[in-house]
C-alpha cells in the first residue's frame, strides 16, 4: 500500500499557509502567501476574498510541485480559517463586497439590535454568546442597514474558509466549529437556530449546510483541479475555525487539555465534553471539531499584535540588525526582554489596541503604558508588552476555572508560542506546565480531520494520538510565580480605574 498524504489549508488574517502531511503527521512541505488587510475607517477591517483564493491556489500548486508527490495520493483535504468573517455572494457565486473581518468593530448598533430582537438571555442560551461586534450576525445586519442594494443581491453567506471550500468543491457548506462563531447557530443542538434567524429576519436559504468537522463536504471540481493540480477524486472535509483546528492540531481533544495561542489575537482554549456556558458571556462556548463535544475559549484581541506593533513602530534597529545576522527580529527582542526584570521595573501595559473581548467586552478600551518613568529603557517597554499580554491571557484562564474547566497542562501555539521566554512567562503566570506541540497548528488540525473523513483513522482522538508529537515542557518556577502574582493583581486594578475615561475618550 502506498503512503497516503493529507493537505491542510489554513487561511489566516495575514496569509494563507498550505501544508502537506504524511499520514503519520509529519510535515512534508509547506507554502505561505501573504496578503494585505484594508482599514477603510478607524475600527474597520476588510479583505478581498479573491486574495484568499489566489493564495490558496498558489500555495497548493507550490506544495504539489515541491513535494513531487502524485495528487492521487492525497487522501483528503481540510480547511481552517480566521473565524467570523462575512463573505457575501450573488446568484452567480461572485463576491459582492470585501469581506468584513473578525477584528472589525463597526457593528455596535447592530449588536444592540440583535440583543433587542432575540433577548439578551435567550441569545446566550441558544448561541452560547452575547451579541458581539466581531461575530458574523451583526455584520450581516450592518450590510442590510447600510448597504441595502448589496444585501438585496446576496444569495449566499459564507465564512472565509467556506468560501475556499466553495471555490474548491462548488459546495455551499460550513461546519459546527466555525458556524458557532456566526451567532446564528444553536450551539447546544449543533444546527442553525430557526428562532434566531426568524427574529433577525435572515433567510435560512442564504446559509450553507452544516456538517461535523471530520465529515466529507464535497470533492475537488474539474475547474479547481485545473487551477491547482489536485485530483477530482480528493474529498474536502468540514475542517474547522482556526482555534478549533489548532485544538485538534495540538491534541486538545479531551478533558483536562488546553492551549494558549499567541497569534495576532490571543486565545486560551479548553476542551470540554460537557456543555458549559458562561451566563455573563465573557468567554465563548463553541462546538468543537470533535463530534459531540464543545470548547470554551477566552479571546484577547491584541496579543502578538501588541508586540508586532511595537516592533514595527520602535524596533527599526533590531529589524536591520536581524537582517544582517540572518535571524528573526523577535529573537533579538527576546534577548533584550530577558535583560529586563520581572515586572519591567514597575511598568505595566494594557493590551487593548483593538478594544477587548475577554474579560471586559469593551469596544472603547485602548492600549496603555502605565508607570512610565525616565529610567525605563526600550527593553522594559517590550517586557511590559509581553507581560501585559500574558496577564490578559491569565484573565481568560481565571474565567474558565470559575466555569469548572481546569486544565492540568497548557500547550503554547502561534508565533508567540515559539518564544522560550514567553512560554516560561506563561508557565509562571498560569502556574502550570507549558509545552509546545511540534506542529503546524491549524493546518495539522484540519489535516487530522481530513484523515478521519478519508477513513485513515476511526476517530479524531485516535488520529491525534498517531499524528501529533509534543516537545518537552517548561515547568513554572515557584519564585517567579509568586513575583508575578502581586503584579497581576496590580494589572487587574488598572482597567476598572480607567473604564469611564475610555468611554469619554471614545466620544472625543
What does this protein look like?
With 508 residues, the chain is an alpha+beta fold. The protein has 2 domains: 5-250 and 439-468, ATPase, nucleotide binding domain (Nucleotidyltransferase, domain 5), CATH 3.30.420.40; 304-436 and 472-503, ATPase, nucleotide binding domain (Nucleotidyltransferase, domain 5, 2-Layer Sandwich), CATH 3.30.420.40. Helices cover 41% and strands 20% of the residues. The chain is built from 19 helices and 24 strands. The radius of gyration is 22 Å and the shape is globular. It starts with a strand and ends with a helix. The model has no long low-confidence stretch (mean pLDDT 95).
CATH class of the largest domain: Alpha Beta
Calculate Rg over CA atoms: 22 Å
Low-confidence blocks of residues: none
CATH architecture annotation name of the largest domain: 2-Layer Sandwich
Within the largest sheet, what's the order of strands? 18-19-17-16-22-23-24
Structural class: alpha+beta
Distance between the termini: 68 Å
Structure annotation, total helices = 19
Q: What's the quick description here?
A:
This protein is of the alpha+beta class and 508 residues long. It is built from 19 helices and 24 strands. Helix 11 crosses helix 12 (316-325), helix 11 runs antiparallel to helix 14 and helix 16 (420-430) packs across helix 19 (478-506).
Please render the helix and strand layout as text.
Elements (H helix, E strand, L loop, with lengths): L4 E7 L3 E8 L4 E8 L11 E2 L1 H19 L6 E8 L5 E3 L9 E2 L7 H11 L1 H8 L8 H11 L1 H6 L2 E3 L1 H10 L3 E3 H4 L5 E2 L4 E2 L1 H7 L8 E3 L4 E4 L2 H7 L6 E3 L2 E2 H8 L7 E6 L3 E7 L11 E4 L6 E7 L3 H11 L1 H10 L3 H9 L10 E3 L17 E3 L7 H25 L6 E5 H4 L2 H11 L3 E4 L4 H12 L6 H8 L2 E5 L3 H29 L2
Parallel strand pairs: 1-5, 5-15, 9-12, 16-22, 22-23
Antiparallel strand pairs: 1-2, 2-3, 4-7, 6-8, 10-11, 13-14, 16-17, 17-19, 18-19, 20-21, 23-24
Amino acid at each position: 500500500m502506498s503512503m497516503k498524504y493529507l493537505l491542510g489549508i489554513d487561511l489566516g488574517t495575514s496569509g494563507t499557509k498550505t501544508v502537506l502531511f504524511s499520514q503519520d503527521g509529519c510535515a512534508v512541505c509547506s507554502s505561505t502567501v501573504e496578503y494585505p488587510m484594508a482599514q477603510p475607517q478607524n475600527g474597520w477591517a476588510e479583505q478581498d476574498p479573491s486574495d484568499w483564493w489566489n493564495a490558496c491556489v498558489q500555495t497548493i500548486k507550490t506544495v504539489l510541485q515541491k513535494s513531487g508527490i502524485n495528487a492521487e495520493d492525497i487522501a483528503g483535504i481540510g480547511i481552517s480559517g480566521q473565524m467570523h468573517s462575512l463573505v457575501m455572494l450573488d446568484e452567480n457565486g461572485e463576491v459582492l463586497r470585501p469581506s468584513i473581518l473578525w477584528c472589525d468593530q463597526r457593528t455596535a448598533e447592530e449588536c444592540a439590535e440583535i440583543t433587542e430582537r432575540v433577548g439578551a438571555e435567550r441569545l446566550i442560551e441558544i448561541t452560547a454568546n452575547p451579541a458581539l461586534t466581531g461575530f458574523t450576525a451583526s455584520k450581516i445586519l450592518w450590510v442590510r442597514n447600510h448597504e441595502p442594494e448589496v444585501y438585496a443581491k446576496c444569495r449566499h453567506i459564507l465564512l472565509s474558509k467556506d468560501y475556499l471550500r466553495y471555490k474548491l468543491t462548488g459546495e455551499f457548506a460550513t461546519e459546527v466549529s466555525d458556524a458557532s462563531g456566526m451567532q446564528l447557530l444553536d450551539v447546544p443542538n449543533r444546527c442553525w437556530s430557526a428562532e434566531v434567524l426568524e427574529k433577525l429576519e435572515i433567510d435560512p436559504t442564504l446559509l450553507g449546510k452544516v456538517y461535523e468537522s471530520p465529515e466529507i463536504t464535497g470533492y475537488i471540481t474539474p475547474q479547481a483541479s485545473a487551477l491547482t493540480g489536485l485530483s477530482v477524486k480528493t474529498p474536502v472535509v468540514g475542517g474547522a475555525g482556526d482555534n478549533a483546528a489548532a485544538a485538534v492540531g495540538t491534541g486538545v481533544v479531551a478533558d483536562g487539555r488546553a492551549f494558549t495561542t499567541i497569534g495576532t489575537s490571543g486565545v486560551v482554549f479548553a476542551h470540554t465534553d460537557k456543555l458549559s456556558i458562561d451566563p455573563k458571556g465573557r468567554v465563548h462556548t463553541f462546538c468543537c471539531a470533535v463530534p459531540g463535544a464543545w470548547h470554551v475559549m477566552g479571546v484577547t484581541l491584541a496579543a502578538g499584535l501588541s508586540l508586532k506593533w511595537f516592533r514595527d513602530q520602535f524596533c527599526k534597529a533590531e529589524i536591520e540588525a536581524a537582517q544582517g545576522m540572518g535571524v528573526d527580529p523577535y529573537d533579538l527582542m527576546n534577548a533584550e526582554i530577558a535583560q529586563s526584570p520581572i515586572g519591567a521595573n514597575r511598568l505595566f501595559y494594557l493590551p487593548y489596541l483593538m478594544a477587548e473581548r475577554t474579560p471586559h467586552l469593551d469596544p472603547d478600551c485602548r492600549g496603555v503604558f502605565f508607570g512610565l518613568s525616565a529610567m525605563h529603557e526600550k527593553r522594559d517597554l517590550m517586557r511590559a508588552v509581553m507581560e501585559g499580554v500574558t496577564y490578559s491571557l491569565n484573565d481568560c484562564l481565571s474565567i474558565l476555572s470559575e466555569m469548572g474547566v481546569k486544565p492540568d497542562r497548557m500547550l503554547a501555539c502561534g508565533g508567540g508560542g515559539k518564544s522560550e521566554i514567553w512560554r516560561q512567562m506563561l508557565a509562571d503566570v498560569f502556574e502550570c506546565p507549558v509545552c509546545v506541540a511540534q506542529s503546524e497548528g491549524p493546518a495539522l488540525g484540519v489535516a487530522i480531520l481530513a484523515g478521519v473523513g478519508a477513513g485513515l483513522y476511526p476517530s479524531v482522538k485516535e488520529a491525534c494520538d498517531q499524528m501529533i508529537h509534543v516537545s518537552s515542557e517548561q515547568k513554572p518556577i515557584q519564585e517567579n510565580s509568586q513575583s508575578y502574582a502581586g503584579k497581576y493583581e496590580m494589572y487587574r486594578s488598572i482597567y476598572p480605574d480607567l473604564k469611564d475615561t475610555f468611554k469619554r475618550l471614545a466620544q472625543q
